[in-house]
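S.,

As promised, the ribose-5-phosphate run. Input:
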Amino acid sequence: MLLKHNLAQQITHKIMSAINDAKRAAAHKAVNEYVKNGFKVGVGSGSTIVYAIDRLAERVHKEKLNIVCIPTSFQSRQLLIKNQLTVGELEIYPQLDVCIDGADEVDSNLNLIKGGGACLLEEKIVASCAKIFVIIADYTKNSEKLGDKYKKGIPIEVVPMAYKPVKQVIENRFGGDLELRMAIAKAGPVVTDNGNFILDWRNFKQDVDWDIINKDILQIPGVVESGLFIGMAQKVYFGLEDGTVKEQEK
Ligand SMILES: O=C[C@H](O)[C@H](O)[C@H](O)COP(=O)(O)O
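Predicted complex:
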């Protein structure tokens, strides 16, 4: 029994370490190829972006680059400050040279599901201000159709008082189930950096036109933003299991 448990632990550890290596490889390549001196850079959120910030800090300090980073969450702001990178605001820099971010899933048309860490609103705003939106991801995120790989659902950020009506409208109009995301180390729901709630939409139909559905969802009163990033990403770096990086672009 103990032997079985140890073996399972070793396998999990091996998989996790391969995934982390893949995230690091993708993140480093993106930062090496897309960040140049003088750039204003949008910096995403999540676990993959940690490796991009590490590489950014390394390059800025070694190559004496003069760049300004615009964070997409409390988390990325904290990481930028910790790494002594210059933090800027969209109010001062409304136009960015590039935005680099992770994703929960990337389909064959480079449409994305984002918001697994509840940062979708600021991520979409910052990405929309950039000339180029670059995604970094490990091989587990690469799918044919949205929903093939990521099973936690499409995140939808809503104003708290509207979570029930929004849930009902989407379920009635498009099918599937929406669930209020609950916090782990807090009683009650997850509250985003912007004071909103998150609904996770699961069991949705996959063969649909996501552009139309996304536009429709954004019209529902109380919806702040969706985790569907349709037609936004121009380039994706997937870190693979063998240590190489696969590039995909529009
Ligand atoms: O809200 C979170 C963001 O959309 C993340 O970029 C996304 O969840 C991917 O995160 P990770 O790199 O941890 O898989």
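Residues 44-48, 101-104, 114-120, 123 surround ribose-5-phosphate (CB under 6 Å). The mean pLDDT is 97.

- D.
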